[in-house]
Target: Nicotinamidase-related amidase
Amino acid sequence: MNRLLVVVDMQKDFIDGSLGTIEAQAIVARVKKKIEAYQAAGDDVIFTLDTHEHNYMDTQEGKNLPVLHCVKGTAGWELADALKEIPGRRFEKNTFASTAVGEYAASGNYESIELIGLCTDICVISNALLIKAFLPETPILVDSSCCAGVTPESHENALNSMKMCQVTIL
Model:
């Protein structure tokens, strides 16, 4: 099987840094196990990295979410310690979704594409729907046990929204 796993923004600032949550901390081990299973099966694994500069607060996102996070080169921008040595292509993105990830997924002739990571209600949903737009006939899956949202309620809302857009929730 030729599958792709997209690991979304599993960065320190979203786990135990400036935007961290208990729910995000709780998924790290499951995310690592899922990555290892994909790699053991010979499937592709890629990572997205939310990437901002020191002028973040002057951006539209910074004005709407005034919490400095994932500034390139800082500890908070790094992948979780348990994940940072895992091989896989990294895609830096300065907004919620990455068109480069969509293009990469579209070029791979994958039988399915699964997303996991943070935050369900912002970057996971954005990337899932963007990939779905690139590949409307490819099954797009999200493992809810390997995702966390800003709040548990917004996590559930995002999962329900993705279901309505024909993303399979595991």
